[in-house]
Design brief:
single chain, 481 residues, alpha+beta, Citrate Synthase, domain 1, 2 domains, 5-stranded antiparallel sheet, 13 helices, disordered N terminus
Length: 481
């Protein structure tokens, strides 16, 4: 489960669990099997031939357009071609016909951990083929070799104000990489349309390789006091491991977090191509912009949430600190939670190992409900009002038909325990949840609903979480973490 809390000031930057272990062992992989670019190149002629056959049916009607479709942003229309993935209300997502469970079983894994690699999912999405372990190892190495940022981009990131919104920094850095674009240079020199794909592919791989480095550098500068990243890119490790290591989560003790990244990034690699981010990329790309500029347009969609400050002047946000943190509950017993507070004391990281619920024949009744209460001691100057603006939780649910689960969260300050805000998210088992799915619970709390604003003092912010499972079928099983 991952949780990210943001507030109306910079007092509490993030709160997200990160769990346990990973190992570094640099080895080179050589293979006589074709690499990704060669595999894609070999598949292109057949796809072009298929496109010609489809065009022969250009006059065929595939649906109707209603007024509600035009008013609703084309929702529900079959209006584009997309092969990578298909979303179904009952079956969930399939990647080239494969369920999540199929992908977890078939796609190659890293040298450590147990989850499929995003590199393998990327290969599957582009080619429709499951790569071999050697092919993925070589692709991981290719990404690692291109992970270093140009010096001017690194300097630009270091020169940004530390309180500039991270997504603004991200968009600007990706846009600046346009300077290195092979497509832009080739197009300027008169590139044949049939060859557009090749420099576009090269730029896309370069961008993919550099995204973790950019994100880690922004995190380091904004929340860890700047300086060198905790680790350099390991040419013998996979994309997600290197990202975790650059965030300070390398090593075997953080293997669970590295697996969480692998699973999360693999599953979110494609969602039928119909979301607003994918559309933005395609729109900008259709104007023959290079992949760097096209992707930076997507990042611009993640608009900053600006802090709310009261009083005649703006206090220094650096004076706002997380003094300490405690936890309690059946889902987070002593020894099962790790905490890390950033050097500037504005970001706290929790790692949960026991916040898990289970239900089914033979499983003790006590396993159906777990609670985990977080208590954050905040110290801040006068002139600020505090409110939880948004909380995001990520976890994994696997529920048979007849099993339902509910995740409750209650927010309040100890100094005003009567003013609470409670949210809940429920999941009904069966369908896509039978084989297991990553879920997201997102709370948006009105700032007026949770404010404790005694000036120049400390306050205890409590976030009480509870997961509860219920079954209407005695033989059914379920779990939520």
């Amino acid at each position: 489960m991952a949780m990210n809390i943001r507030r109306t000031t910079r007092a509490l930057g993030a709160l997200r669990p990160m769990a346990a272990r990973s190992a570094v062992n640099a080895r080179q992989y050589s293979t006589s099997e074709p690499d990704l670019k060669t595999t894609l190149k070999e598949a292109i002629p057949a796809k072009r031939e298929l496109l010609k056959k489809v065009k022969a049916h250009s006059n065929k009607v595939i649906g109707e357009v209603k007024v509600e479709n035009t008013l609703g942003g084309m929702r529900g229309l079959k209006a584009m071609v997309w092969e990578g993935s298909v979303l179904d209300a009952n079956e969930g997502i399939r990647f080239h016909g494969r369920t999540i469970k199929d992908c977890q079983k078939e796609l190659p894994k890293g040298k450590t951990g147990t989850e499929m690699l995003p590199e393998a999912m990327f290969w599957l999405l582009l080619t429709g083929q499951v790569p071999s372990t050697n092919q993925v190892r070589q692709f991981s190495r290719e990404l690692a070799e291109q992970a270093q940022l140009p010096a001017f981009v690194s300097k630009m990131l270091d020169d940004f104000p530390t309180d500039l919104h991270p997504m603004t920094q991200f968009a600007m850095a990706v846009s600046a990489l346009n300077y290195t674009s092979k497509f832009a240079k080739a197009y300027e020199n008169g590139l044949n349309k049939a060859d557009y794909w090749e420099p576009t592919f090269d730029d896309s791989i370069s961008l993919l390789a550099k995204l973790p480095t950019i994100a880690a550098k922004i995190y380091q500068n904004s929340y860890r006091g700047g300086g060198a990243l905790p680790a350099e890119v390991d040419l013998g490790q996979d994309w997600s491991y290197n990202f975790a290591a650059m965030l300070g989560k390398g090593g075997k003790e953080n293997e669970n977090f590295q697996d969480l990244l692998r699973l999360y990034l693999a599953l979110h690699g494609d969602h039928e191509g119909g979301n607003v981010s994918a559309h933005a990329t395609h729109l900008v790309g259709s104007a023959l912009s290079d992949p760097f500029l096209s992707y930076s347009a997507v990042l611009a969609l993640a608009r900053p949430r600006f802090p709310t400050v009261v009083g005649p002047s703006t206090p220094n946000p650096n004076e706002i600190q997380i003094v300490s943190a405690q936890f309690s509950g059946s889902g987070c017993p002593q020894g099962s939670v790790s905490t890390t507070i950033s050097p500037d004391r504005t970001v706290i990281t929790f790692g949960f190992d026991r916040f898990q619920t289970y239900i089914g024949p033979g499983i003790p009744f006590a396993e159906r409900t777990k609670n985990c209460n977080l208590h954050l001691n905040l110290r801040y100057p006068s002139g600020f009002q505090f409110a939880v603006v948004e909380s995001t939780y990520h976890g994994f649910a696997q529920l048979d038909q007849g099993v339902s689960g509910t995740f409750f969260s209650t927010y309040f300050f100890s100094q005003d325990a009567g003013a609470t805000t409670t949210t809940s998210t429920s999941i009904e088992g069966g369908g896509i949840w039978k084989d297991g799915q990553v879920y997201t619970k997102q709370d948006v709390i009105p700032t007026a609903a949770l404010i404790w604003a005694q000036c120049g003092a400390s306050g205890i912010l409590n976030v009480n979480n509870r997961i509860n499972l219920v079954s209407r079928v005695p033989s059914a099983y379920g779990s939520i973490t």
